[in-house]
Each structure stands twice: as C-alpha cells, then as structure tokens.
Write a structure and sequence with these properties.
It is a single chain. 48% of the residues lie in helices and 14% in strands. By secondary structure, it is α/β, with parallel strands linked by helices. The protein folds into two domains: 171 residues, Rossmann fold, CATH 3.40.50.1400; 134 residues, Rossmann fold (3-Layer(aba) Sandwich), CATH 3.40.50.1400. Strands 2-1-3-4 form a four-stranded parallel β-sheet, sandwiched between helices. The protein has a four-stranded parallel β-sheet with strand order 6-5-7-8, sandwiched between helices. β7, α10 and β8 form a beta-alpha-beta unit. α1 crosses α2, α3 packs across α11 and α4 packs across α5. It is globular, with a radius of gyration of 20 Å.
C-alpha cells in the first residue's frame, strides 16, 4: 500500500523565554531575511537578536512564556492527517517543521526517512508566496533532504494559495460574524492585515504584496457587503528600513480620527500567535481605545477551522496528480 508523507512548513516560535534569543538569531541569520554576506550577517544577527530579546521576551511573557504556534500547527497537522486518512485508502502521515525553532528541518527529514514513504508532499503554511517565507523554507528543506538521504518522489505545493476557496470561506464566515457585531456602532471599517515586508525586498520582485491584494479581493467578493469600507495594511515592522504601507497601526489611528468601528482580519497567518494575540489583540486594541475607536474586533486566524483543513486536504490530493522538483539551494 502506498504511503504518503505530508510535510507542513511554518515559521516557528520560542517554546520558552530562554529560547527567544536563539529564535531571533536564527531569524536574522537567514539570508532571505538579512541580505548581507557572511560573516557580516552572522555578526549582525547576533547584535540584532541581543538587542531585540528583552522586548520580545515581554511579548511572549504575555502569552504565558512561549509562542503557541507549535501547538497550533500540531493541531492543524493532526486535523489534516485525520481528514486525509478518512478520504483516501492509502495512509498519510503529516509531519511539521519550523524554520527558526524546533522541530528543525533536519530532524524532521530524518523522521520522514524512518517512515519510509513512497511519496512526499511539501506544503508551506504561508497563503501568499514570499522569498522570505515559502522560498526560504523550501530551500532549507532541499538541503537537509539531501543530507538525510531522502530520495523518494516529492510533490511541492510551491505555488501559494492566496485565493483558495476553503481558506477564503473560513475567513469570510468569521469576518461576517465580527462585522455584524461591529455594525451596532456604525458603519464598520475592515482592516485586512498582513505581516509587513521591507520595500527593498519587494523591489527585487517578491510577489507577496500583490498576492495579499489577491486575497483581499477574493474576501471582498466572498463577503459581498455593499460599499465595504476596507483597507489592506501591514503590521510587525522592525528595524530602520522602509516597509510597505499603509501600516496597520496607522490605519487604526485613522479609524480613531474617523470614529468608525473596526474589524481586523489576519490574512497572512493561518494560526494565532504573537502577531495576532499580542500585536493585534493587545497592542492595537490599546491604540484603538486611546484614539477613540468605538468598537474593535479581531477575527481569529483560520486555525483548525474545518473549511480550512478541508482546503489543505484538497491541495494535497490535487497535488498527487504530478511531481514537481524541490527548489534547489542557491
């Protein structure tokens, strides 16, 4: 009987406060993030991670001392495996690997090899493609797969899924619920918020902002709300570089000046973690209160929403119709 291994890719996060600095170092030492040659990248990553650790530890302290992204991604993996094995006669086993925190790709590649699959399917959990996320994760996997001696046929779902129907429908349902509540305070404004990106990376041809816009357009059509007041905006800026705009925080402040109720929808995160649970729910909610926003709602990430999990299963099943190469390391 054919055995299929499905590997999910996500960013990762520290599982304790002592892991915050190593996590940040791994992030900034990625050539896709900090685009300077070694040994300068190593030195800069050491410096930046040391400086940012105190602030980051305060953020994770508000989440109980760790990031929930691993636990949430494990729940998604378990849900996806259950759906796939319910649908198909051939067995599936779903693995997950994180880019900057355990479980790292090399460890997971070894576990996949021990499973002895007949086929591997690589599925990044990034709805929109970016060189800093999807491409970085898949390049690392290509390297460690060779190191682990994985030679099985693989299908790479390298193309993103910014308008995948189940993903959009899951967000639509939750957004409608929040929107109806917000209507009691006036005509709501919906902020479709995505993680930001430095402009210099976009200028190299990174398609991320354009694909975020595709997600927003699909959501607007799915919501079918007449004269919807909405904005695509970007959060989580760090460092001195110029980032793509408008910023989510500036849009919250504008909503305060306009005295309109707000609904914030995370469109680039598929599980709740520090960017949604702290940055949006705590920090931006505080900005909204300070600036006079009459109502503030955060739509949860899709998580294990059945529509989303079914969508992932659809992607996996559809991808088995053909093999695509794993991206090669630069």
């Amino acid at each position: 009987m054919k055995k299929t291994a499905v590997i999910l890719f996500n960013l990762g996060g520290p599982c304790s406060l002592t892991e915050v600095q190593p996590f940040l170092f791994n992030l900034f030492n990625d050539p896709a993030i900090l685009r300077v040659p070694q040994p300068f990248r190593f030195m800069l990553a050491k410096l930046i991670s040391a400086r940012r650790t105190p602030v980051a530890r305060e953020i994770y302290a508000q989440l109980g001392g760790s990031s929930p992204i691993l636990k949430n991604t494990q729940a998604q993996a378990q849900a996806l495996e259950a759906v796939l094995n319910f649908r198909q006669a051939n067995p599936y086993k779903v693995f997950l690997t994180m880019r900057y925190a355990p479980p790292f790709a090399l460890e997971v590649a070894s576990a996949v090899k021990d499973y002895k699959p007949d086929h591997m399917i690589l599925l990044p959990l990034y709805p929109q493609f970016s060189t800093t996320t999807t491409e970085s994760s898949l390049k690392e996997w290509a390297q460690v797969a060779r190191m682990a001696g994985l030679k099985e046929h693989s299908t790479c779902i390298c193309s993103p899924w910014p308008t995948e129907k189940g993903f959009i429908n899951a967000l639509t349902g939750m957004t409608r619920t929040a929107y109806e509540e917000a209507k009691r305070y006036g005509k709501p404004r919906v902020l479709f918020s995505a993680h930001g990106l430095p402009e210099k990376i976009v200028k190299t041809g990174d398609p991320y902002p354009a694909q975020c816009a595709e997600t927003v357009e699909a959501l607007r059509k799915s919501l079918a709300l007449p004269d919807l007041d909405s904005v695509l905006c970007f959060q989580s800026r760090v460092g001195p570089l110029k980032w793509i705009t408008p910023s989510t925080e500036e849009e919250v402040q504008r909503a305060g000046r306009d005295k309109v109720p707000l609904v914030i929808v995370p469109i680039a995160f598929v599980s709740d973690h520090s960017e949604t649970l702290v940055e949006i729910e705590i920090e931006l909610r505080a900005v909204a209160t300070q600036t006079g926003v009459p109502f503030f709602a955060r739509v949860p990430a899709v998580g294990t929403n059945p529509l989303f999990i079914e969508a992932l299963a659809d992607l996996v099943v559809a991808s088995e119709k053909g093999d695509t190469p794993i991206p090669l390391e630069n």
